[in-house]
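dumping this here before i forget
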Amino acid sequence: MLASIDHLISAQNLTKIRQLLQDSPFVDGRLSAGMMARGVKNNQEMNPQSSHFNELNELVMGNLVRHPKFKAVVWPKRVAAPFYVRYEQGMAYGEHVDDPIMGQGELYRTDVSTTIFLSDPEDYEGGELTIMDSYGERQIKLQAGSAVMYPSHSRHYVAPVTSGVRLVAVTWSQSTVRDPAKREMLYELNQAREMLYKELPNSEATRKISATFNNLVRRWVEL
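structure:
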């Protein structure tokens, strides 16, 4: 399932985030890449030892993990500290699948990947996040402050940046619902339940849909 969140980060916070990134050191992104990704990865990542790292996380990740749509789509159990990534002219990230296990010390399984766009689309050419699924290739280039969530097992790539600078934050989540098809069913069923509750709060259909949703959560969620 591919889902997006618009206006996750305010314009005021985006200005502050960009300033903090401008004042932070960046390193070769290949230093954090797995064996297969290392050959296709060409970008820069903010040094996690930067003095601004915690402040950036408050501004970026605080909004994400509290957002109701993120919770409804991902069912997060663990959410990783993000990578703040910069693509300058000529940089790209070739086709790859995210590593299934990540982390240092406490490991986590990558079920859902999230990209948060920090640059305005008009600030750079190219750089589309392209995700391949059963419907073909989907090119994604969202407004600054928006986020897209997609299954970590999907093949995807970042097209070459031909001008300007592309800034994003990337993070991964381990879900309490491991199966992506089940996560999608829970998301859609919950949407139907909420619509029914608004229109027919006391109906038998609303009570049955709600009971079915809760019982599927009980059956599928792994704590």
